[in-house]
Amino acid sequence: MLKLALRNLFEKKIRFVLTTLSVVMGVMFVVGTFVLTDSLRSAFGDLAQDIAGETDLTVRAFQDIGNEADRATVPDSLLADIAAVDGVAEAVGNVAALNVVIIDDEGESIRPQGPPALGLSFSPQNLYVIEGREPAGSGEFVVDATTVERNDLVVGRIYDVHGPLSAEPFRLVGVFNFGSPESNTSLGQTMSVFELGTAQRFLGFSDEVAEIRIGVDAGAGLEEVRSSIEALLASQPDQFPPDRFEVITREVTAQEQQDQFDSAVDIFSAILLVFAFIAVFVSAFIINNTFQIIVSQRVREIGLWRAIGVTPQQVSRSIVIESTLVGFISTAIGIAGGMVLSVVMRAVIRAGGFSLPAGPLALRPRTLVLAIVIGFGVTMAASIVPAVRSRRIAPVAALAHDYRIDTGGLRRRMVLGSAVTGIGLVCLALGMFADLDTEPVLALTGVGALVTFVGINIASPVIARPVARGLGRPIQALFGVPGKLARENAARSPRRTASTAGALMIGLALVSIAAVVGASVRKTVVETLSDAVRSDYFVQTEQAGFDPTAGFSAQVADDLDVLDVIDSTISLRVAFGGMNVDGVSRDIVTTDFDVVEEHLDGNVVSGGFAGSDPRTSVALHVDPAGDLGVAVGDTLEATFPDNETDTLTVVAIYTDAVIYGNWVIDNVLWDEHFGRRDVRFVSVTVAGMRELTAENFPELSTEALAQRRGDLLERSRVEVEKVMAAYPGLKAENRVEFRESQEQLLDSFLATITGLLGLALVIALVGITNTLALSVFERTREIGLLRAVGMTRRQLRRTVRWEAAIVATFGGLLGVVVGVVLGIAAALALPDSFVTDVDVPVGSLVIYVAVAGLAGLLAAVLPARRAGRMNILEAIAHE
Question: Is 164:97 a contact under the CB 8 Å cutoff?
């Protein structure tokens, strides 16, 4: 049976290649993802040690709320006390800030795409000067070697540097490597480094430091020195309250850095693995369909085997052997391809601006085991049903030309498919609407989607025949006999048509889900910016995108605010998990309460922002207000990253989470609890713009009022642009321009998601090609007879191509319908901060179906060509 399986497998080389390819792509994506992420983890482990540097101990504020950038500071007065502790060789204060941007010789801002722009104080523990000297004065700085090389910076020249508070000129006095004297091990971030006093002033730390790095004498015991420093802190409880500061070792520092890197890699890995799983899932449909067709084509052959004594077990074993060989070869090729893919993905990431640390490719045993499980598991699981059915072939009956394997009635498929689909929809509903933690929600949603797709695929043969005939009707009308044959061939075997279209259905359903959710998010954002935004200008970085850390100098708002043409400005900041209320971390937005409602309308339904005490006020969305049972005038206990707890009074409750998020505090309160001084956005209103209304000017028509507003906006732009000229890398957009830029940002994000989902479509088209190739082989005698009675090669090729188009269009239609239903459900399940209005992009969905049909035509090129080149007599004689 082994020899027989090998002969059957390798005699049909095209079928073997296409079947193998679908598995290879899934295995390759999984292996490539794990090899890349494991390589990054290994390299980041070394980098974490470099970041820890030669520091033995670190004194810093304890943090339980917010992210690392919002950690509380340490008084620099502690430096001298720690330096005097026995066993301490040196104690160096360190400060760091985001969004510290250098302006190059061309007047362009140096802000990498992806990695941050950092400002730091000089630390000899992990910064190694390789040219010039370290900074010593208030007007000096040094820059990392990568930034210097990429931007042609010259030691000795003066460059403007934009910090969190303001912009100042600094002379470049040196170049350094980060982490190692031999090479710069940074990840592509720009690093502007100043002496400590200058860094404290310029980066907004005043008389504080972010941490104190300590070197221990060679003969001193690390734990003894650590205990002495902890005793020093405990001896001054008024200045250093208990549990407010901590002393950690180099190992803890390195492990925390490693954990941060691992967290980022885990997110990246999870995203890629989702798409890899989709590819594997689609591949399983294709393999199952392939083996189903192979078994049905070899009915007479299997009947002859049985007639000469081959047992049913041996018949099914031959199918399993074939699938095993496909799995083995696919896995081997997929592993090799995955290694290559990981190199390509690393190059793409580096091209995006991230200088990934060098290191060998890491192919771990876990990756090999997973590749084998996927490669063999998918092919073996997909071949089980065909193998079982092959055992039921009766020897004598199978020798008849018209024998067909019983695959179950359509009514039974409908019942089973409906039941499976129902189970999937219940899981989806629980995942989308039940009040569960994140992991159960993701698990239920994923399982629900998978089971739903399987159920729909089981039931889809019920509608395959009528839909195929309906789709084929215009083709028959246009192309006559070839069109009619294409229509009848597509409807001849509804199970095969549905199974072939099933893979494409999954791909189009996922794309359609993304389209519906994306269109809903886009509509929500556009309508919000149109209806709720009263600002005349928005200022942000040119590369802000979806980067939550992007920001710029707070001085921009001050420079705009003094212009006569400007009425008011507000600054907005964001902190994820920046406040703890009722034991839960809350994402917060900060702004200027007194004038915010002149800029942004969050649809306040109770209370108001203006006139409230900025130090003790909070506003929140109706949902958390309802969850907590609070109303305007009630108080809440809020804890911030500096471990201080304030009693805040609810002054406003609003309904528009797209504008304000769920929680809003004033910038004054932010400055008391957060060290960051840069801002995310600045909103600007033009003087006199609010007065240009129909109530104030009843004599003017709507067009005349619009003209006056436009003229006023253009006059103000001249003054605004003068200010912005001093801040390269920032842009001031009016309301229309800002809305358009946000739309483009969303469109680019959705295009990326759609592109990744396109992998499933590619695999599905491989499946269509494979099925048609098998169908052409199955109909060899029929094709010979058609050619014998006068059908031309061109007509025959047209028949095969249009059959593929009908099958692909059926899959596209089914996928779009399923995707729209699931997409609407997903959009409704999203919080109000993402979606308030559901939108179905009909135009895009029609294009998807049309593209599916065209792709079917493309997938049929090789099978159609093979059909057209058949020898008539040999085809008629084919058994």
Answer: yes
d(CA 556, CA 167): 10
CA 661/CA 670 separation, integer angstroms: 16
Q: How large is the greatest C-alpha to C-alpha distance in the chain, in angstroms?
A: 105
Q: Is the pTM of this model over 0.85?
A: no
Contact 167, 555 (CB under 8 A): yes
CA distance 745 to 215: 47
- Residue in the structure block whose two tokens are 């956005």: 681
Q: How far apart are CA 161 and CA 141, in angstroms?
A: 10
Q: Rounded CA gap, 53 and 44, in Å?
A: 14
Q: What is the pLDDT of residue 116?
A: 82
CA dist 669 and 575 (Å) reads 13
List, for residues 273-332, the tens digit of each pLDDT value. 777 777 777 777 777 776 666 666 666 666 667 677 777 777 777 777 777 887 888 889
Question: Is residue 402's pLDDT more than 90?
Answer: no
Summarize the confidence of residues 583-612 as an average pLDDT: 92
Copy the structure tokens of residue 48.
């974490």
Which one, of 213, 222, 224, 259, lies nearest residue 74 by Cα?
A: 213
Inter-axis angle of helices 481-492 and 494-531, nearest 10: 90
The number of beta carbons lying within 10 Å of the beta carbon of residue 746 is 17
pLDDT at position 452 is 86
Q: Is the per-residue pLDDT at 48 higher than 70?
A: no
What is the spatial distance between Cα 879 and Cα 863, in angstroms, rounded to a whole number? 19
Question: How far from the centroid of its chain's Cα atoms is residue 547's Cα?
Answer: 12
The band of 581, judged by pLDDT with boundaries at 50, 70 and 90, is very high
* Burial of residue 181, with CB atoms counted within 10 A of its CB: 0-12 exposed, 13-18 middle, 19 or more buried: exposed
Query: CA-CA distances (angstroms) from residue 759 to 482, 629, 765, 801, 811?
Result: 32, 47, 10, 22, 16
Q: Residue 6: pLDDT band by 50, 70, 90 thresholds?
A: low
